[in-house]
Design a protein that fits this description.
Strand content: 25-35%
Number of strands: 16
Order of helices and strands: EHHHEEEHEEEEHEHEEEHEEEE
Largest sheet: 9 strands, mixed
Shape: globular
CATH class of the largest domain: Alpha Beta
Number of helices: 7
CATH topology of the largest domain: Aminopeptidase
Mean pLDDT: 89
Length: 322
């Protein structure tokens, strides 16, 4: 009989050594360091754990489970998040093993009172899609930023983001998220964990392949807007951003300032997800298309009546993808 156990010690080492590589193509030694480092953040220590589906002494599949909190139709809900579903065999047997592990984790979460399950899938579509889950839709955007004819920077004070900014960043998200049917509650510790994961991915990958920009526009000594961007070659991906100004004008100014640092360089391709209704005045949408189905939801409690969401119902960031 297959059984689900915490993936720790020798079992975790076996998972890292034998399962297909994920997380941006990290080498196995880098993957092990990434796993260990992100597990030590304040948020992860209380909300993240990896499990394995075992048959005797063999690992059939593994997955990370996250304890999340969210808002759905104004109600606070407890969420079981499941991500990085990896099977030893990347074929139909492996898919069934992954789905069996997800089913066990979902059933345990329901018994423990979770109201909602979220399944985070890989963009290539290998990860399981168990019965009962529906897609939470998101939209891929390509953006264009208006620049000065002289390619100069706007009059905005820009600095690197710091831990002292996290409370203000969390508050921006709560304020903007109130108008949406669904969002994840993002505490300061959650935001720090999300940014740390991106930094680790950049720092442990191939030299120069990826970097992270985390910058702040401030008023006085308080963060008034921020943006987190992954840079890979000539492509910038907005991982998350926020602005106390409802128009998002400071986020637009941050983008202008980052572009203006290299006035002679070719302009980057800028992509990302933005909450519906949030578009800085300096930014235009060059193209949009439905994102791959990377986020799925399933109700686990009678308290949750409807998890069929439209794109305009959801406030969700790329850095929220586990």
């Amino acid at each position: 009989m297959a059984r689900v156990v915490p993936a720790e010690g020798a079992i975790l080492q076996r998972i890292v050594a034998t399962t297909p590589l994920v997380n941006g193509g990290l080498s196995r030694p880098a993957l092990a360091r990434h796993e260990a480092a992100q597990a030590k953040t304040a948020w992860a220590l209380g909300h993240q754990r990896r499990f394995a589906l075992m048959q005797g002494g063999d690992v059939l599949a593994s997955a990370k489970r996250y304890e999340l909190t969210g808002r759905l139709d104004g109600e606070l809900v407890t969420i079981c998040g499941i991500a990085e579903v990896l099977a030893t065999q990347p074929d139909d047997d492996g898919r069934r093993d992954g789905e069996a592990l997800v089913a066990e984790l979902v059933q345990e979460a329901a018994r423990n009172g979770a109201a909602l399950a979220l399944l985070f899938r890989t963009a290539d579509g290998w990860a399981p899609w168990p019965d009962g889950f529906v897609v939470v839709p998101t939209t891929d955007l390509e953006l264009t930023v208006t620049e000065s004819a002289r390619r100069g920077a706007p009059m905005v004070l820009v600095r690197g983001g710091e831990d002292r900014d996290l409370d203000a960043i969390a508050a921006m998200g709560h304020t903007r998220g109130d108008r949406f049917r669904f969002r994840i509650e993002r505490s300061a510790d959650f935001v720090k964990h999300a940014i740390t994961r991106k930094r680790l991915l950049a720092g442990l990958g191939a030299a120069g392949a990826r970097q992270i920009e985390f910058v702040i526009a401030e008023e006085g000594i308080t963060a008034a807007a921020y943006i987190v961007i992954s840079v890979a070659g000539g492509t910038w991906t907005i991982e998350e951003c926020g602005d106390r100004d409802a128009t998002g004008a400071r986020v637009g100014a941050l983008l202008q300032a980052l572009i203006a640092r290299e006035p002679s360089s070719s302009r980057p391709v800028i992509r990302g997800w933005l909450p519906p209704g949030f578009l800085p005045p300096q930014v235009t949408i060059a193209s949009s298309s439905p994102a791959p189905p990377v986020l799925l939801a399933r109700a686990l409690s009678p308290r949750v009546q409807d998890v069929h969401l439209a794109a305009q119902d959801v406030m969700y960031w790329r850095s929220d993808l586990f």
